[in-house]
Amino acid sequence: MDRVGVLLLNLGGPDKLEDVGPFLYNLFSDPEIIRLPFSWLQKPLAWLIASRRTQKSQENYKQIGGGSPLRRITEAQGEALKEQLQALGQEANIYVGMRYWHPYTEEAIAQLTQDNIEHLVILPLYPQFSISTSGSSFRLLDKLWQEDPKLQRIEYKVIPSWYKQPSYLQAMAELIAQELDQFPNPDSVHVFFSAHGVPKNYVEEAGDPYQQEIEECTALIMQTLNRPNEHTLAYQSRVGPVEWLQPYTDDALEELGAKGVKDLVVVPISFVSEHIETLQEIDIEYREVAEESGIENFRRVPAPNTHPLFIRALADLVLDALKSPSLKLSQVYQMKKKVRIYPPERWEWGITTSAEVWNGRIAMLGFIALVIELITGRGLLHMIGIL
Ligand SMILES: C=CC1=C(C)c2cc3[nH]c(cc4nc(cc5[nH]c(cc1n2)c(C)c5CCC(=O)O)C(CCC(=O)O)=C4C)c(C)c3C=C
Ligand SMILES: [Fe+2]
Question: Per UniProt, where does Fe(2+) bind (predicted)?
Fold first, then answer.
């Protein structure tokens, strides 16, 4: 029988407080997380941002027991998926490949090569596609495939996103219904979807389909829930000075409080496991914002974790993928990311994004030349012997 493997992709999280700094450095070193015009700036800037953020981030991890539960939960999902596949007649080895912490994607690939896997299903544990999550992992895998001839022997299938999968929608609806039914008057509770945000320019300039997939997913979950509750969608976890997708979760909670909403359930929508952004950000920070805004009864729907319907959804995705035609990782990436490559490399005349990017690059070079002149006392043209 052919050897089948499933590679579960996720972001990864620090296992203990000392891991927070290096984890953040890995995260900010990724050009899919911070998009810069010059690749040589990436590592110094990653070091700077990670150093400035480590203490605050460590405080947050302290509040949830000193580390991320992401690895433990992802491994439990993998075990449950293996059993579910077995029950459906499909033997498979499951591998976990994290993007920014252990077990790294590279470690998973080394293991599955050693196990002589012949057919591989690549399944990101993000229901919706974003350049910053599944996209980043696909790019890394594409690079590993190009570098290692041994990997060419593996026939792989990629699942780009799966937010429409019926058992996933049912699992979400069931989890929401269970939470609503804790209230004396379930139908009047406000259902508040909170998705992880991304910078607005990912969607508007780089062609990230994330916002559209999040919006569709929210509508499908409400349809599956089939209850009369009002609902809101907002975006959490903003980092840095640029504008992110709006409305922001804290602003939207304040607005609902001001409108007189008293009962509210938060549904984390872009995550399938508990982690810092559910356990700390929603359960502690946003709960406080909600209560200060007058929302009296604040509950959160648990992430799907190892909910049987959710595991069934993952198994069905794997079985369907094994039967589907193969697409290259780079094709999947380009198919999802519909618009041009950012920053635009082709010059365009007029007040265009491309012209702004190139003006920025030229200005940056001018600034570097000025700094060199200030430090050395000699101009760049003198130094290279032109003047
Ligand atoms: C769909 C999920 C996620 C998207 C989209 C996403 C984009 C994104 N994230 C950052 C910055 C940070 N993310 C951090 C942790 C983190 N993010 C996700 C998910 C998405 N990120 C997960 C699952 C985790 C791991 C959490 C854990 O349990 O450890 C962090 C570190 C935590 C912190 O310091 O707050 C940062 C920073 C950006 C900039 C971005 C899009 C560009
Ligand atoms: Fe994040």
Answer: 196, 277
C-alpha distance across the termini of the chain, in Å: 72
Longest dimension (CA), the chain: 82
Find out whether the beta carbon of 275 lies less than 6 Å from any atom of ligand 1.
yes
**275 labelled as ligand-binding?**
no
60 in any annotated domain: yes
Q: 384 φ, ψ to 5°?
A: -90, 10
| Complex-level ipTM beyond the 0.85 threshold | yes
User: Look-up: residue for tokens 């490559």?
Assistant: 341
Q: Which of 305, 372, 382, 246 is nearest to 77 (CA)?
A: 305
- For residues 42 and 126, state if they share a domain: yes
Residue 199 resides in a domain: yes
Same domain, 193 and 114: no
Range of the structural domain that residue 364 is part of: 353-383
* Residue 66 sits in the same domain as residue 133: yes
Site to probe by mutation for ligand 1, drawn from 9, 11, 161 as the one with most ligand atoms within 8 Å of Cβ, is 11
Are 19 and 67 in contact by the 8 Å Cβ rule? The answer is yes
- Which of 45, 99, 239, 267 to mutate for ligand 1's pocket (most ligand atoms within 8 Å of CB)? 239
Beta bridge partners of 195: 235
pTM above the 0.80 mark?
yes
CA distances in angstroms from 290 to 65, 114, 158, 194, 210, listed in the order given:
23, 50, 40, 13, 26
Q: Going residue by residue through the chain (387 aa), what tens digit of pLDDT does each one get? A: 789 999 999 999 999 999 999 999 999 999 999 988 889 999 999 999 999 999 999 999 999 999 999 999 999 999 999 999 999 999 999 999 999 999 999 999 999 999 999 999 999 999 999 999 999 999 999 999 999 999 999 999 999 999 999 999 999 999 999 999 999 999 999 999 999 999 999 999 999 999 999 999 999 999 999 999 999 999 999 998 899 999 999 999 999 999 999 999 999 999 899 999 999 999 999 999 999 999 999 999 999 999 999 999 999 999 999 999 888 898 898 889 764 444 444 444 444 455 555 555 556 656 556 655 665 666 654 554 445
Q: How many domains, the chain?
A: 3
Residue 343 lies in a domain: no
CA of 3 to the centre of ligand 1 (A): 33
* Same domain flag for 10 and 148: yes
CATH code for position 122: 3.40.50.1400
Same domain? For 367 and 233 the reply is no
